[in-house]
Write a structure and sequence with these properties.
The protein is an alpha/beta fold. It contains 9 helices and 23 strands. The protein starts with 13 loop residues before the first strand and ends in a 13-residue tail after the last strand.
């Protein structure tokens, strides 16, 4: 994998990175009941965290702390196995919060001792649960040139979609003048009506400033609610817009924190990958058509008809099961969203099958149908069942 070496000039130190990978992702419902959101499979056998890890490696960031907390087992196994060879011994540390992290900023506070080396002048803080491609080295250089205490990576989204993000305004020099965390009525960008500037959860900090804030402001638990507003009040925060993705002509960044976004983003990759997948491409057998994706280990019988559906890892779909065509019927048995996504896990299927058996005469019960196995190319792990 090609790396971009971060240039250093006289007076500049090195960079340390903290990757926040401890979130559960409750909006993904049963998918994250026993699995951390960054560890979920995406577009086959990739995992969500692989996108940011690929960015870290390409950007030449060689000193990394991965802060885990909820259901850390998969990440603790996957990150060293998949990415460990890119780092020198002791330079990629997985640190389990064991319930101690009370927010994003508090997770960094708890790991400051691992990055507070005097030679480190810059701390990069990244979220592990977004899908995008980015060269952090360019953002770090822009941050150092600006002299700001913090640089926030931002993207531009339709104003109607911005209420789930931190929304900000910036002046012509890029200095942030206002910041609202998940506002009900997001403000539009001045001069760009209908669009809002939102935080991507990517921060580049001056180490000295960040340490001072986190050690003195004990109630600063979250970046969006506490640390970034403080920097805005001090007028020491600036923005860095996500550049266009290679070959697309526009930026590509997706928060896959809802079932609708999780499904629709993978469909984008099934048709034409909007950014590079991290590592070797998986076969597209995980995309079943009709807006449906099947996660590793899924078994779908001939005669099943699934539309706009997520089949969770390890689920056995029987012949005759139909989804995405009768919303009321879907809601009786499965998880359904307002956006039209249906989520099926094994418990839901078994409940549906029990009901079906109770209302069908035994003499007309269908004989077991053959199955094609999506798990041949997409092997399930025993801790990834939803």
């Amino acid at each position: 994998m090609k790396q971009t070496r971060i240039s250093c000039v006289a007076g500049q130190g090195s960079v340390a990175t903290i990757l926040l990978a401890g979130g559960q992702g409750t909006r993904l419902c049963e998918l994250t009941a026993r699995q951390a959101k960054p560890a979920l499979y995406f577009a086959g056998t990739h995992r969500i965290i692989d996108f940011v890890m690929a960015n870290v490696v390409r950007s030449g960031l060689d000193r990394l702390v991965v802060a885990t907390q909820f259901a850390p087992g998969t990440l603790e196994a996957h990150v060293p196995l998949r990415w460990g060879h890119h780092f020198q011994l002791g330079q990629c540390i997985l640190q389990n919060g064991k319930g101690a992290y009370r927010g994003t900023a508090d997770a960094v506070r708890n790991n400051l001792s691992l990055v507070s080396d005097p030679v480190v002048d810059t701390i990069v803080v990244l979220a592990a649960d977004h899908v995008y491609e980015m060269d952090y080295a360019a953002m770090i250089e822009a941050h150092r040139a600006s002299g700001a205490a913090v640089t926030v990576g931002v993207d531009v989204v339709p104003q109607s979609d911005a209420s789930g993000f931190g929304v900000m305004h910036a002046d012509e020099q890029g200095v942030v003048t206002s910041f609202q965390e998940k506002p009900a009525c997001p403000p539009a960008i001045i001069g760009e009506p209908g669009y809002s500037m939102v935080s991507m959860g990517i921060y580049v900090f001056s180490r000295v400033w960040l340490e001072e804030v986190l050690l003195k402001e004990e109630r600063a638990l979250d970046f969006g609610h506490h640390v970034i507003p403080l920097a805005v009040d001090q007028r020491v925060a600036t923005t860095y817009r996500l550049p266009a993705s290679e070959g697309m002509g526009r930026p590509y960044w997706r928060d896959v924190g809802t079932l609708d976004a999780f499904r629709l983003t993978q469909i984008e990759f099934a048709h034409k990958a909007p950014c590079r997948l991290p590592g070797e491409p998986s076969a597209t057998s995980w995309f079943l058509g009709r807006g449906t994706i099947a996660m590793p280990g899924a078994l779908v019988s001939p005669g099943a008809r699934l539309s706009r559906t997520i089949v969770a890892p390890g689920v056995h779909i029987p012949s005759g099961l139909v989804t995405g065509e009768d919303t009321d019927e879907d809601r009786r048995w499965f998880r359904c969203t307002e956006g039209g996504t249906v989520l099926i896990n094994q418990t839901m299927v078994e409940r549906w099958m029990e009901h079906r058996a109770s209302v069908r005469p035994r003499s007309t019960a269908s004989r077991p149908a053959g199955r094609f196995n999506l798990g041949v190319l997409l092997p399930a792990l025993d801790d990834s069942r939803a």
